[in-house]
Amino acid sequence: MNNLYLDVGKEKQAEILNELTAEIGLSSRKLAKKIGFNRSLFFHYRSGRHRMSYNYLKKLCEVAGKNVKDYKINLIEINNKRKCEKIDLPFLNENQMRELLSPEKWQKIVAVGLLTDGCVLPRKSDKRYHVRFFSCDFTLHRCFKTMIKIAFEENQTSFIKGKQNSVWILDYQKSKNSKMMKNLLAFTKSYTCKANCKPSLKFLFDENLETKKIAVRFAMSTDGSVSIKRNKHKKRIDFSLRLACAHPDLVLQWKKIFNDIGLDMRIDLDTAIFSGIHGLTTSKKINFLRFNELGGFFPDNVKVTNGKCIGLMKNQVLDFICKSLKKGKRNIKDIKCFDEKIRYGAVV
User: Fold this and answer.
1) Distance (Å, rounded) from C-alpha 87 to C-alpha 108?
2) What's the pLDDT tens digit per position in 291-331?
3) Which of 15, 102, 260, 340 shows a CA-CA span of 20 to 30 A to 79?
4) Interaxial angle between packed helices 103-117 and 179-187, expressed in degrees from 0 to 180 and rounded to the nearest 10
5) Rounded Cα–Cα distance for residues 273 and 247 (Å)
């Protein structure tokens, strides 16, 4: 019965809803409290954004004193497995990660993960927050889950599949007064990197070098890439290291943090983005060697999730690039010998 929804048009659904609510005579807030459903569902159903569930209709009919069977409408069964599916996600090298940084330092790395591949969403209905991390890579999810466990001693609320087939969402639901939310909102008031928002990385400026290193390495794993491309004009292979960040203030703050750990990145422009900025990039030999010296991408076994190099570890490709740069060779034969999956224009 939980999977049954009304199989009617938007106008008919709105008509049924308006008729019943008019007869009940309660505001949407009071009605939601009385029938035990979220208030936002009322507006979603009335606008036709979502199909009305049969259970919702039954509750309305009970309050209105009507028989639900009087509405001779077709019903459709929809499998909501994606919304409720939970998977036991194991921790990633918890003891080793505890040795790297203290819980207080890991709290700031969690904030970095949310600024790159996550979000913090306030929920108006009950003043709680959704803390979410998005990734196609289960290793990154395990790493982020372990960070939160070390930093805040909190466990995930759910691990669900996103609307896009390849993306999974690690979700935590916390009250505003919880330790986790108080600390995260103290670091930066906004975790949204869109126009008119003001996210900040200033909480990292006075941190020690080790914390900044882990922050950069994790950010590069979530929103960064290392690429191998064919330069048609110079008839050679070009390498580049990038961090995607379109927010104008945040990209300058990232540039400072990269400089603090010995990486000289330049701002990469892109007119197709609202700010005209794609992020940070470098193709300098010294930066590749320095990033590899720092340990490369964190965690070590983060894999490629798109392009022609799917399945390869990012640090594998970084090691290959560093060896090629040390030898002073950038010819195509070396690329082919490295792995059959690497082709011209392959991005890792």
Assistant:
1) 26
2) 999 999 999 889 876 655 667 789 988 998 898 888 876 65
3) 15
4) 70
5) 10
pLDDT of 186-221, one tens digit each?
999 999 988 889 999 999 999 999 999 999 999 999
Contact 319, 292 (CB under 8 A): yes
Question: Which architecture, in CATH terms, is 94-192?
Answer: Roll (3.10)
Strand partners, 244: 279
Fold category of 209-338 in CATH:
Endonuclease I-creI (3.10.28)
336 pLDDT higher than 60: no
Domain at 4-79: CATH architecture:
Orthogonal Bundle (1.10)
Q: Do domains 94-192 and 209-338 have the same CATH topology?
A: yes
Q: Angle at which helices 39-47 and 10-24 pack, to 10 degrees? A: 140
> To which H or E segment does residue 258 belong?
helix 248-260
pLDDT digits (tens, 9 = 90+) for 11-22: 888 888 888 888
